[in-house]
Amino acid sequence: MFFVRYVGPFDAAPLALVAALVQVRRSGWYLALLRAGTALSVSMVLPWLWLMRNKEISGYLTGCREAGGGTLLDPLKTFTGTLGSWLIARPPLSGNGGIYLNWNDFSLYMKVAGVTTWLVTAGLVITFFAAQLPDDSALYSNEPQSLFAATFHWPIRNQYQYDRPILVPCANRYFVWFNQTFLPDGKPVGASIVYEDSWGQVLDLGTCDSDIARFWP
What we know:
This protein has helices at 2-5, 7-43, 45-58, 73-87, 108-131, 144-151; strands at residues 137-141, 156-157, 172-178, 192-197, 200-207.
């Protein structure tokens, strides 16, 4: 039930991580993680004192309660459904289910939203890699909007715009190819792979003064 009631402690670490990722391009990894970690540590003081108070009174960090039973998969499924209910801003069972919920209590939309969140989170790895490419890189992608939202790099062109003039001086070109896309055609041919996972590839298109058209014969 920690997943349902103690939302603040659960959200604190992901928020600190996001804050660090936003700051890393400005201040570097060390300062970004130091600042986010310090803010996280300070913000957890009062919740930790509250947990200690619970343990002193009842012997449990979150208060005395009956054992949930079942397997580890059950609370993970409940957590996924709960996350989905937060995303669509609707309570399961129209708000009449209380806090003792199971997977079947969540609507199909909640389940889909929760599972999608896990999948999107897994797909962020390739965008994290792309975000660490040198600032003077020119980026191309078959999902430029998604890549821009993760990297704040501008401009990002798709595979049909490779012959457009470069607006910002650059040193090297990279293409971030997502396997799940609405633009499945036109993948660069012959480019070396600098990163790859189940979500896609980061391809090296060479220096900005080289012929980019050779990758689209």
